[in-house]
Amino acid sequence: MKTKDALEIEVTNFGPIVEANVDLRPLTVLVGPSNTGKTYLAIMIYALHRLFRGSERRVPSRWRGVSRRYPPHDWSNAQTNRLVSSDANVKLLLDWALELYTQTEVKETTGTFPAPLPETISSLIQPLFDPKGGFDDISNAEFARCFGLRSPAQLIRSPGATGAQVVLRRHVDKKRKGEAPFAYKFDISKQGRIRFSTSIPAAKQLCYGRDILEQMKWEFQVQISELDDVDRQYLAFNLINDLVDSIFPYVVGPVGFPAHYLPADRAGVMHAHRVVVSALVESAASAGIRPASPVPMLSGVLADFLEQLIALGDFSPDEHQRRDNLATHLEKTLLGGTVHQEEKTKFAGAIPSFSFRPNGWKESLPMMRTSSMVSELAPVVLYLRHVVRKGDVLIIEEPESHLHPEMQVEFTRFLASVVRSGVRIIMTTHSEWVLEELANLIQASELSESQREAINGNDIALREDEVGAWLFQSKKRPKGSVVQEIPLNRESGTFGAGYDKVAVDVYNRWAEISSRTNEGGGK
After folding, report:
1. For residues 333 and 5, what is the distance between their CA atoms, to the nearest angstrom?
2. From residue 334, how far is each of 154, 356, 376, 438, 492 by CA, in Å?
3. Peptide bond into 159 cis (omega under 30)
4. Rounded CA gap, 407 and 175, in Å?
């Protein structure tokens, strides 16, 4: 059930995928046989987050130092500087912002958000959402890095395809029927180059969020009438970037926020991460620009996972209190113990170690001596406690790995509670138990709270439009896979991923073997 403002990702001839058109939901599930492209799509989404999530920069200001998130790689800085070099633009922006600020402060109006920008302001900042020169090279390096390849050309489906394409689309105005979407397109050629292009719709579609009002409380601690021209330019520069920050999530949806990737081999990394040399992390950052080497390259998703493990503890837990409560809940209900990060030693570049203390024990176990279930889920605990914030995306490959079916169901419920906390989830899975419990959670959303309380384990629920399941199916011509949404089957109470066919085939073989045995065919 796609929502009108969904972020659509269209993929053609990418890796094993012939074609796919996926819209990202708060919980997005990628299902299908092995080698059909689930991980390819998940990593590609992560690469898009890396490109569009923005970066932290310090803004020069005479009144304060502000750390803010610009659009990717500061592509708009030069254009912003050009805008504020015009006195007319500065006056237009400051007059509008001051009026909005004054109305909010005096009249205490709240308004409805997202709110449309005046067309004069929209036209002014609309070009800031169109990356200019150099983004081809940035995209080229980021795609290669995330996949651990020397050239994006290796991402083109083989055999037969002459190029690949990834398109990001986002409709930002729900009320306007047939409006053109914001579109960002990446064309990958056999020569190993990425050509980036954009389609920016009418400026009147731009909307800003309530967060801009909070920013203005800081911006207008000064009297505009007392500022000289240079200070007015600084203020206009800050306000433009506040606006871009506020509008950006409506333009690119969830990829405007950070994503964190937990790869399928995370358990092995938890066991042996201390012996992985930091140079491996650095090598992934230079993917695509290093000379050829026979040494295998570390993929960017694995390098980033290692880097996050090394940096754990450098984040303030106060910023993640609600997620920390979820991490504690996971420890209590599934792990039966607590995950600990040992203190780093004093020498530079030290790598932390992790341990697990079962309930009732006085001493902790090194992670390599714990069960595979603990090693699989420990990164989830650590990320929720130290890294993930509201609005972020957590990508998890095969969360059911090494989990007993009962624990798979429990962990699925837990992931639903993470989604409820404001964190988006993308996961790949081969588990029928996961899909069936997701179906239960959706159908439970149609019950009242009192009705749900009477059902064991149904204190949490997700609406149907909050969950999207996508099936990767192999085809022979052209060779590759096609991705289609799996609708929830109300009669069977699950998503039709083809697991029932496997169960029927196994049963039929058993029946045939039993029949022949009864006929005396056995020895």
Report:
1. 36
2. 40, 13, 12, 18, 28
3. yes
4. 43
Distance CA 149, CA 155 (A): 9
Interacting residues of 498 by C-beta distance below 8 A, sequence separation 6+:
471
User: pTM for the complete prediction?
Assistant: 0.84
- H or E stretch at 386: helix 372-386
CA nearest neighbour of 45 among 297, 301, 288 = 301
8 Å CB contact between 470 and 495: no
Length of the chain: 523
The owner of tokens 């990702």 is 9
- Measured CA to CA, the distance from residue 356 to residue 359 in angstroms comes to 10
Q: Which has the closest alpha carbon to 379: 356, 358, 360?
A: 356
DSSP string computed for 429-475: E--HHHHHHHHHHHHHTTS-HHHHHTSTT-S----GGGEEEEEEEEE
Residue type, 455: I
Count of other CB atoms within 10 angstroms of residue 275: 7
Q: What is the pLDDT of residues 233-270, one digit of tens each?
A: 888 888 888 888 778 777 888 888 889 999 988 877 77
Q: What is the pLDDT of residue 72?
A: 45
| pLDDT of amino acid 471 | 96
The DSSP code for 158 is T
Is-contact 262 394, C-beta < 8 A?
A: yes
Tell me which residue of 204, 217, 197 sits closest to 247, measured CA to CA.
204
Please provide the distance, in angstroms rounded to a whole number, between the alpha carbons at the two ends of the chain: 55
Q: Which residue has the tokens 């050009």?
A: 82
Mean pLDDT of the chain: 80
Q: What is the 3-state secondary structure (H, E, C) of 411-429?
A: HHHHHHHHHHCCCEEEEEE
Dist CA 155 CA 465 (whole Å): 31
List alpha helices for 179-253, DSSP H.
Answer: 211-219, 229-252
How many CB atoms neighbour CB 505 within 10 A? 10
Of the candidates 71, 65, 32, the residue with the CA atom closest to the CA atom of residue 51 = 71
Report how far residue 182's alpha carbon sits from residue 126's, in angstroms, rounded to the nearest whole number: 11
Q: Are residues 458 and 452 in contact, defined by beta-carbon separation less than 8 angstroms? A: yes
